[in-house]
Amino acid sequence: MNYIDKIEGNLYSFYHLAAGQANLRFCREDHFSWVRNPDGAWPNYVFNIDMELLTSKPFIDQLAGRIKQKELPPVIVNRLPENADLYYQLAQKNGLREIFNWTGMALDRSGYRPGTERKTDLRIEKVSGRDQVITWMDIVNSALFNSKSLSPGIAVAMAGIEGMELYTGYETDMPVCTALSFNRDGVAGLYMIATLPDYRGKGYGSRITLAAIENCFASGAGTIILHASAMGESLYRRLGFSEYCKFGILWMVGKEFR
Q: Which domain CATH number covers 138?
């Protein structure tokens, strides 16, 4: 399995298992999959689209039409094709707008560079119990989504998935940052890495990322992957992650399509 397959496979398995654990509506169609969460925006996505179809006008027109009819969720999360400009042109003509861009990155144990990050007094705990899950979820929604995108039902459900660990970082007794790791088939994905705005710039994001990485390697992962935002990419490069692909996140413009 190459790094791109690992980066894509872990992400799509994450969505699939989270949907199943939370009893959300999940469908795997011939050329893509989708999940519907009626109580929140995450994960309310179309994903795992066949790459060769992303630059097909009839396919994109049909996909966008189904989104407008509310047959499909309003957000597309997918690796970008080689001709990303054409994909974006076709999407934009149908009212789909890029709202985020992620860099798919991977790290093997041999490339890990933990000594590059400064120490902090952050206390990191693995999340257990509903109250701790809700605290973790509130940080994610406030710091990462700026909304109530992640609902309590799915947050609690995720904490029960085998191979999934939730982490909360505390400044003294104040919960200030989060991370999530998902270890499957020797590949561990890092997700929901977030720090409350008032506590940024103190190295907390670095420390909780390091804790998650070390836990994943200790649990038997051979490769760690993540999908970096522009804000976090420089940190992950310092830790030894390398770039392998790009993801585009598209949203159908208009509240009527949600």
A: 3.40.630.30
